[in-house]
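In this supplementary section we document a worked example of the pipeline. Step one takes a protein sequence of length 371 as its only input; no multiple sequence alignment statistics are reported here. Step two produces a three-dimensional model, which step three serialises into structure tokens for compact storage. The input and output of this example are shown verbatim.
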Amino acid sequence: MAAHLTPVLNRRALNRATLDRQLLLRRWDMPALKAVEHLVGLQAQTPHTWYVGLWTRLVDCRPEGVADLLTSRQVVRIALMRSTIHLVTADDALALRPLVQPVIERSMNGNFGKHLTGLDRDELVAAGREVVDEKPRVFSELGRVLAQRWPGRDEASLAQAIRAWVPLVQVPPRGVWGASGLAAHASAETWLGQQLRRGYSVDEMVLRYLAAFGPASVRDMQTWSGLTKLGEVAERLRPRLLTFRDERGAELFDLPDAPRPDADTPAPARFLYDFDNILLSHADRTRVITAGYHEQNFDVQGPMPRLVLIDGFTAGTWTMTTQRSVATLTIHPFKKLSKKDRGALTAEGAGLLAFVAAKARAHDIQFGLPA
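The serialised model returned by step three reads:
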């Protein structure tokens, strides 16, 4: 009987709640650092595309200001959730890394563990720390230096073992807007001048996930973090949370005071970067992903598409090219767009061009034919 009394959130209600938590239902007037903290980081394995993720969420986001956060070490790019590179605050790097350590080690063992059999972990970790603390190293150099001590061992595996067993950050100029550089790594503790926070709890991490991505199921929590057995955490937190059901009957957890806008709340047109959090952080992604997206048959081994949201849902992709100092934004809709939607995308696209291609001599926006 209790299950029938649990409120049901339909797809649009989940969409609007998630957009609001993700700062996508309107642009927010908040510092970029605070936005990164609220979002529990942005997935950022590409050097620069994640800048668009902040631009599309904030009222006055300037790439140079965000880059300053990297160079001043207020934010870092580090392997965290799902063992992927995330841009997070310095505090979150130190707090979250111990919690997701099992995920990172599981990934490394699956790909490289067979090449590390018989090695003394403590000895390798100490040697790896010494190498990256001497100066930031790219993985090829790190593996080569370690192989001098362990000749015959696979160099890539040695480097990946240090990536897993030592929290490494990618240091500037890598990731700095308008700059380029190899992916050189230093230990987080040395780069930030602080030790890891080992007292931070999984419970707190789940509560922050709900604040940024909820309402969410246990499977959603596990998909985002890469951790398992979070059902135990949800049960422990249940007295502090509200519960809902989605249209398929899955139980959803949420914070009592979190925003859950009306399903008919207008949602603005948005351009998402290729690894935007809202696309990758739920087991059931139908709250944002449409059938039109799946009909494109994107290559799962290929580059991630950069998606357009109309009315809160995936409605097309976008690409940007620059030729002869003219930056061209091309929008590829999944179906024919209304005049109103084309106008909204054109206005939003002009802002995107001004952000990404500020130095171009001219800007152009084009629409491709529906797929």
